[in-house]
Write a structure and sequence with these properties.
The chain has 477 residues and is an alpha+beta fold. The protein contains eleven helices and 24 strands. Belongs to the copine family.
Length: 477
């Protein structure tokens, strides 16, 4: 997701013409990826306006699918034939090579036919169609000391010709060639097929009108400490934001660029509510059960600080109620027009882990992602179980359909010099990095294609009457 700040200064050879500030996310998230803003900077003078349009480079999305076979490869195993596999390398500008793909191993075969495989063109050649692609041929060994059979070089442009006389490559072992006068080659590799498809991207869906619905849930358990004390994680200092506010602002200010109405449901969990002291794990921060939406991130922050003054921090730390609540809203709109992102900020270990895992497994089949930010010094080892990067979350023998949870401890991103802006930028970069791929994984699993790009709005955002299609109701209690 885009968080880059754009600063534009316009001038002729001598004269300053004006300036404006925006984020890249604002440009991409605008209707039709077209943003018009008024220039300013000269007191008492109208500086005119400027129009930005965003376009994604086509070769960033191309996906190549190819299949290769080999013939008469060298025999490397004493008791059998070779177990060959291919390793593809992208050449770098400094002359080095980077591995970009390995094929499967074909056991005991000197004439192997490998399965077709798919690779992004940017991974193969970084968009430079004439850049050298090196391919090594190895004989697989169980102990990892694979035997080198030989190598050949090609390029994306050559491969794109498809099956032809130009795509039959001699596999050469230069050491062997230097020792044997009659050496010809160590076999040949032939390209059997090659095709290129253009894969849909996150930007395609945003340009087609897909909206990100952002929901916030904040931990109000007693382990955070008394908000009136400086030692509390909820302490409302007049001089700086606490960790909860920083995490909320860091993530929210970026994601709000992809949400047209800027209305965000915001909840707390683990507190006793007035007047009867009832414990709630999904109470609206604005105290309005019928409409928990807050206007923009500043509205969420205002409601958060107000709740700290009115509720009693208590416990336990239950995640499942809020996850299930957002999931119910996500289940109402699975046509690709909306995608839900839940940000949960907490200071401790989850009390309802079994129920939370079940809620995550259920939500994994919906247009939904969950970001969990841990604040404070607690150990968050149990949280890693929810972040399915290594092992997919499971519950009652059922595994999550997708990896939808991203967990990070905020302390890992705190700048040592105390620069809160830098800390927030580092946090936002990492926690939002997985959202585009998670959105795409849902769309792909449901066979959903981006809608045609919306027509660009002709007026500045503050005056525009052109909006995407109405969204479904947000995460109401």
């Amino acid at each position: 997701m885009c968080s880059t700040d754009c600063v534009l200064l316009l001038s002729s050879v001598k004269d300053f013409l004006g300036q404006m500030f925006c984020t890249l996310g604002e440009i991409i998230g605008s209707t039709g990826s077209r943003l018009e803003r008024t220039l300013s900077g000269i007191p008492g003078k109208k500086c005119g306006s400027i129009i930005f349009t965003a376009e994604e480079l086509s070769n960033c999305r191309d996906i190549a699918t190819m299949q290769l076979c080999a013939n008469k490869l060298d025999k490397k195993d004493f008791f059998g034939k070779s177990d060959p596999f291919l390793v593809f390398y992208r050449s770098n500008e400094d002359g080095t090579f980077t591995i970009c793909h390995k094929t499967e191993v074909i056991k005991n075969n000197l004439n192997p036919v490998w399965q077709p495989f798919t690779i992004p063109v940017r991974a193969l050649c970084n968009g430079d169609y004439d850049r050298t692609v090196k391919v090594d041929v190895y004989d697989w060994d169980r102990d990892g000391s694979h035997d080198f059979i030989g190598e050949f070089t090609t390029s994306y442009r050559e491969l794109s010709r498809g099956q032809s006389q130009f795509n039959v490559y001699e596999v050469l072992n230069h050491k062997k060639k230097g020792k044997k006068k009659k050496y010809v080659n160590s076999g040949t590799v032939t390209l059997l097929s090659f095709k290129v498809d253009s894969e849909c991207t996150f930007v395609d869906f945003i340009r087609g009108g897909t909206q990100l619905n952002f929901t916030v849930a904040i931990d109000f358990t007693a382990s955070n400490g008394n908000p009136s004390q400086p030692t509390s994680l909820h302490y409302m200092s007049p001089y700086q934001m606490n960790a909860y506010a920083m995490a909320l602002k860091a993530v929210g200010e970026i994601i709000q660029d992809y949400d047209s109405d800027k209305l965000f449901p915001a909840y707390g969990f683990g507190a006793k509510l007035p007047p009867d002291g009832k414990i709630s794990h999904a109470f609206p921060l604005n105290s309005n059960a019928e409409n928990p939406n807050c206007v923009a991130i500043e509205g969420v922050l205002e409601a958060y600080f107000q709740s700290l003054r009115t509720v009693q921090l208590y416990g336990p730390t239950n995640f499942a109620p809020v996850i299930s609540q957002v999931a119910r809203c996500a289940a109402e709109v699975t046509d690709g027009s909306q995608y839900f992102v839940l940000l949960m900020i907490t200071d401790g270990v989850i009390s309802d882990m079994d129920q939370t895992k079940e809620a995550v497994v259920n939500a994994a089949g919906l247009p939904m992602s969950i970001i969990i930010v841990g604040v404070g010094p607690a150990e968050f080892d149990a949280m890693e179980e929810l972040d399915g990067d290594e092992v997919r979350v499971s519950s009652r023998g059922r595994s999550a359909e997708r990896d939808i949870v991203q967990f990070v401890p905020f302390r890992d991103y705190m700048d040592r010099s105390g620069n809160s802006v830098l800390s927030m930028a580092r946090l936002a970069k990492d926690v939002l990095a997985e959202i585009p791929e998670q959105l795409l994984s849902f769309m792909k699993s449901r066979g959903l294609e981006p809608r045609p790009p919306l027509p660009a709005a002709s007026d500045p955002p503050s005056m525009s009457t052109s909006t995407p299609a109405p969204k479904q109701s947000k995460a109401h209690a």
